[in-house]
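Hi R.,

Here's the chain you asked about this morning:
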Amino acid sequence: MTLKQINFLQINLQGCRLAQDLLWRTTAERDIRIAIVSEPYNVSGVPGWYTDRTGWAAVGFPDDMVVPKEVEQGDGFVAVRLGACTVYSCYISPNCTPSEYTAFLNCLAASLTRRRDQPLILMPSQKNGRLEEQINKDTKLENGWLTCS
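And the predicted structure, written out as tokens:
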């Protein structure tokens, strides 16, 4: 199976049980192989699901047929390596401070740097408008990499 043949679903469940129940149904009906989820209701202990340390970002394999080669759990992101490709799910609260956001970006950048020779799939959560001005001042894109000053 190649990544071109895999159906992905990216969604923010906002901690809602009903939304998560609909996720289970949708993944089955639409042959979704990889779900990239922000704010899941509860996937801890569910086979085939991997979360960040906070439980707010998750990558799941609904049919539980995919076995990752490596899982990295950070605060606000989870990276799941599948063969030569790594899938990321990220979540940072819109209520975080600019310094918390910068710390999150630094940890995420370190993880991405460790995997710079691998194809990456990075799915961020919703935009954090409150921090947008601060982020634009403190970050820049160089050679395809997000850097923080």
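Residues 86 and 120 are 5 Å apart (CA to CA).

Let me know if you need anything else.
M.
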